[in-house]
Specification:
By secondary structure, the protein is an alpha/beta fold. Helices cover 46% and strands 10% of the residues. It contains 13 helices and ten strands. A four-stranded antiparallel beta sheet has the order 1-2-4-3. The protein has a four-stranded parallel beta sheet with strand order 6-5-7-8, covered by helices on one side. Strands 9-10 form a two-stranded parallel ribbon.
Length: 412
């Protein structure tokens, strides 16, 4: 379910009687912003909204609500009457800006029910645009070439999850044909879109990395990740094949994140100490797995069905951020990655930002809140609500890792 897109569309329909324009005028609170700033907001000055209205209305001077002949609180009323998936609890107008606070209890219920009942994600729209991703043929082994290969893999994965676009195996059937090449001199068929990945630079010298092959870089990254895992995250496992496999996963994840964290057409600095970023992401993957394993091992009563959970018990600020900014925003993020693919602009770096922000909030939550409490009857309702939240978080997190071809880890 595209919760954020659906909510903004419903809001635009209410305010402007259309859903084509005005999307950029509605802002969603970022994960690092204060909850007191609301969950969504938009300017109330009508002049900013003129393009969303017919020509005869554009001379109006005043605020948006006066023009629409509705009161701000009607947003809350309409959201309840219309059974919006993200119902509104409160609306405030402060300094020419409308601030919207969602009904947390009902939003938790609606989002978790729909997400957990659709483990494969949502279906496609009626007529998705067809995209052909041309295969990359290159004998070069440089990191810049590998960045292009990686970019193509990730875009194919994103297309596999998109509602609005679908990958097709032949260019004859395509509405859009994308050619990814690391050489600016590459000529493409008229009508095709060319995506030129930025060069990979050595973070220490600022010069293009061309000496080492990508396989050599991966081997070095695996060694760096082993040091980080052992010294920063306390890994004490033996140097056996199982540990070697884990360091390969860590190395691959870290390399992928470093190469894709910048806009695809921008240069990216590779190397340095950023191996910690990939390790930190997978360390929190292991945390989620461990918590759910411990829930089973400690013989807690199994959580009741989602329909019976009291979601008002999820009152910690991080719980709300994790639900709205990550669980409810997953599909919104995926579509934003390829919203301009028809003109050759793609944004897989948004996936990296999503993961980094996700683990930053989850890590703070993990350190501050005791998720697995004592096995006492009066604590079980809160524990069960958190277990359902944790299961949804793990599912969304693993699906996002899969977009980058990164495997989750169970232990570190």
């Amino acid at each position: 379910m595209a919760f954020i897109e659906e909510f903004v569309g419903q809001l635009l329909q209410l305010l402007t009687n259309q859903r084509e324009k005005g999307w950029s005028l509605v802002s969603m609170r970022k994960p690092n912003e204060k909850l007191s700033q609301g969950d969504f907001s938009f300017p109330t000055d009508f002049r900013i909204w003129r393009d969303c209205f017919p020509e005869e209305d554009k001379s109006f001077s005043g605020d948006l609500f006066t023009h629409c002949a509705i009161k701000p609180e009607e947003i809350q009323i309409k959201s309840k009457e219309g059974c919006w998936n993200l119902p509104v609890e409160k609306v405030e107008v402060i300094k020419n800006r409308c601030i919207i606070f969602l009904d947390r209890k009902e939003t938790f219920r609606n989002v978790l029910l729909k997400v957990m009942n659709s483990p494969e994600g949502i279906g496609r729209e009626g007529s998705p645009k067809r995209v052909f991703m041309e295969e990359i043929s290159s004998d070069s082994q440089t990191l810049t070439d590998f960045r292009g290969i990686l970019l193509r893999k990730v875009l194919v994965n994103i297309l596999g999850r998109s509602r609005k676009y679908i990958e097709v195996p032949k260019r004859d059937n395509a509405d859009v044909t994308c050619v990814i090449t690391s050489k600016s001199s590459t000529e493409v068929v008229e009508g095709d879109v060319k995506i030129l990945p930025g060069v990979v630079l050595d973070s220490r010298t600022g010069k293009k990395l061309s000496k080492d092959t990508w396989t050599e870089c991966l081997e070095q990254k695996m060694k760096e990740c082993e040091l980080v895992a052992r010294h920063r995250y306390g890994f004490r496992g033996p140097g056996d094949s199982q540990a070697g496999k884990m360091f390969e996963v860590l190395g691959t994840a870290t390399m992928t994140l470093e190469l894709l964290e910048a806009k695809p057409t921008s240069p990216v600095a590779y190397g340095g100490t950023s191996s910690r970023g990939g390790a930190f992401i997978l360390y929190n993957s292991a945390r989620m797995e461990t918590l759910l394993e411990q829930f089973k091992a400690r013989n807690f009563p199994e959580a009741p069905p989602l329909e019976e959970i009291d979601f008002s018990l999820l009152s910690e600020p991080e719980e709300w951020i994790l639900l709205l900014n990550f669980i409810a925003s997953e599909e919104w993020m995926i579509e934003k990655c390829i919203s301009e693919i028809e003109i050759g602009r793609v944004s897989p770096h948004l996936i990296c930002s999503f993961l980094h922000n996700f683990v930053t909030i989850f890590s703070a939550y993990y350190r501050r809140v005791q998720i697995l409490t004592d096995n006492r009857k009066h604590l079980l309702k809160t524990l069960h609500a958190r277990i359902h939240l944790l299961r949804a978080l793990r599912m969304i997190f693993n699906r996002t890792l899969a977009l980058l071809d990164i495997q989750p880890v169970a232990k570190m």
